[in-house]
Structure formats: structure tokens, C-alpha cells
Design a protein that fits this description.
This protein is mainly α and 184 residues long. The chain has helices at 2-9, 15-19, 31-50, 64-91, 96-121, 125-134, 138-148, 154-173.
């Protein structure tokens, strides 16, 4: 599940398309096709995000302005990656056995996009980014998110995890390999 949260929380996911949740246009996939397509989309999103220039660290001792600018670009990359990931997921039509879980996942993904967009749009982004960079505990990280005015990511992460586990349970019931929700 850490891999999923990393993909989602740090870079994989369309607000307009997701608002309709379930508005996919393609043909209904079989379970096997659905899980293969879901994992393909997630894998591509993860690779695309990991290849962004903001994933390379700044030199030690970089000025605050440089660190803040890099952080802003990173969060913009997160939002763009999430939108891209979810735009592709919206386009697939899951089989009936997976539709409710798929829609729940998309709904939680929409919340995730709005959360990270809220960080990018925060009038206190500079303060937030420096506080988050300095945070050493979960409590300090939560306080940084409060500075940005977005609240806690924990409830969103819980909904994403629950939906992913529901999707994974469907795969398991049908003896389909689906590793996206594995802890790794």
C-alpha cells in the first residue's frame, strides 16, 4: 500500500472528469483486462513522476528561495501526475464486480488532487514548504499542512487505501495478480 500512497500522494492524478466518477467511455473490460490496465496506468504514472526534474535534490546549502521554488514545482508535479493518472483511470470501464470499488478509488483520488492543489494555491506556501522540510515527526508534518490550510491528508489516505484494498480483494477472489496495494 505504501507504493500506492507514494504513487497517489507524491505524484500520480481530472478534477472535471472525476467529478462525474464513473463517466468512462470505453468498452467494459473483463476483470483480467481491468486489473492489467489499472496496473499499467499506475506503473506509467509512477515512472513519469519519478522522472521529473523536481525529484532530484538541490545542492546542500541551497538558499530558501531556491528550496521554496523547487518545492512549489514538486507539488505542481504531484498535481499534474495525479490528474494524468486519474484521467486515464476515468477512461476505463471496469466490470460490474469492480465498479463500486473503482468509483470509490476515483472519488478518493479527486480528494487527493484537491488536497495537493490546495497546497500549491496556499497563500502561505513558502512558510509551509520550509516547515515541512524541517519536520522530523508526524506531528510536525501535520502542523505544516495546517500552515498551508489544507488539514490532514490522513482521512484521504485512509479512503484511498480502503478503496485499493477493496479492489485488491476482488482480484484475489478471482485469482488475479494485482500488486498495487502491496506494502513495498
Amino acid at each position: 500500500m505504501r507504493r500506492l500512497v507514494t504513487i497517489i500522494g507524491l505524484g500520480i492524478m481530472s478534477l472535471g472528469a472525476l467529478a462525474a466518477c464513473g463517466g468512462s467511455a470505453g468498452p467494459t473490460l473483463t476483470l483480467e483486462q481491468y486489473f492489467a490496465e489499472f496496473q499499467r496506468i499506475a506503473g506509467e504514472a509512477e515512472a513519469d513522476f519519478n522522472a521529473t526534474p523536481t525529484r532530484t535534490p538541490l545542492p546542500a546549502g541551497a538558499a530558501d528561495d531556491d528550496r521554496i521554488a523547487r518545492a512549489r514545482l514538486l507539488y505542481e508535479d504531484i498535481v499534474a501526475s495525479q490528474k494524468s493518472f486519474y484521467d486515464e483511470l476515468v477512461e476505463i470501464t471496469p466490470p460490474s464486480e469492480a465498479k463500486d470499488a473503482h468509483d470509490a478509488f476515483l472519488g478518493a483520488g479527486d480528494e487527493s488532487i484537491r488536497f495537493f492543489q490546495g497546497i500549491v494555491d496556499s497563500s502561505r506556501f513558502d512558510e509551509f514548504s520550509l516547515a515541512l522540510e524541517a519536520a522530523e515527526t508526524n506531528e510536525e508534518r501535520r502542523q505544516a499542512y495546517e500552515i498551508a490550510g489544507v488539514g490532514s491528508y490522513d482521512p484521504i489516505e485512509a479512503r484511498l487505501n480502503a478503496a485499493c484494498l477493496e479492489i485488491a480483494a476482488i482480484a484475489t477472489q478471482h485469482s488475479i495478480d494485482f500488486t498495487l496495494c502491496d506494502d513495498d
